[in-house]
Amino acid sequence: MFLCDIGGGSTEVVIGSNDEEMLARSFKLGAVRLTDRFFSTETLHPSAVGSCKAFVRSTLMVIQPDIAELGYDIAVASSGTAETVARIIHAQTGESQPKTMNRFEFTRIQVSETVKALAACTTVDERQKKFGIDKSRAQIILAGAIILEAICDVYGIGTLVFSDYALREGVLIDSLRRRGLGPQSSEHDPAMHSVRQLAERCDDRLEHSENVARLACQLFDQLQKTLQLEPETRKLLEAAALLANVGVVISHSKHHLHSYYVIRNSELVGLSDREIELIAQIARYHRKGEPKLDHAPFAALNDSDKHLVRSLAGILRVCVGLDRTHDGRVKKVQVKHTDSEVVIEFSCAKKFDTELNEYSANERKALLSDVLHSRVKFVSSKS
To answer: Does pTM surpass 0.90?
Structure first.
């Protein structure tokens, strides 16, 4: 993984794999430092941009051979400069600004176009008005964007992912780990950790939600290809299952609607704005009405995401039914396909009655049947 953090006085570049640091370099290339050197006049000098670009590229070239040799699979950018550039790029889509830019992807070409647009503004006031940014950021964003553009060009980066975590969070986490207080495993998933924290704070029946999440993931694994879903969307289903009932913190009545509001307005670390919206919608449709085009948030999704929400909500709804007794008695689900229907066999210990669970799952199967384009049948078995 390649990471860059552009600060006011310096820029940090790191290549790492899991917890191993393979390359780390700090350059005296900060947005404030370069603004003072190249863009200190009230009106932009005609040669300032070219001079700044040449200086930045020559400085970054020192480690270009090392980066080329090490390689990386993903490039991540953090800091206020990267976020501002990402927001400028996103604004070009005409879509409303997301609550978070975390994990927003943008390309080298888009960064270069942003630099050109910023450089076309001859004064800070013009830059501020055109891009809707505050004056302090408008003063330094051109220099910061030039650094980001040079990083892409010199190190051959085609696409960047923005992270709202930056150097200070990394230092804090590292300090905690050294004292045995922070997450120690390289497999720690900050997104799911954040999801679980929200569930623990708001859900009064967390064990039920965990049972539903377990069954939903089992069902997803067996229906993923049939539904033509990407494997990574499994995490969205798991998160939605764990958070489906957080709305009870507001009211038990219509809690599925409140769950959407709580999820959408919570700071879930490690998730993009799109992912948070999808999780919120999947959770919102875990009961009562199905997704409809007269529901504005659902109607705003593209066709692919509409299918994703319908499919995952369909899975979630039946799994809520399978744990209708809220005691985790259904341990396993097994999918079997026939010419005329999809049979979902669920098993539990012999001592348990499953009539209520089966009835509840059947009551909730319409959406799943619709997205599968097939009849759905539930069959219980004893172990």
So the answer is: no
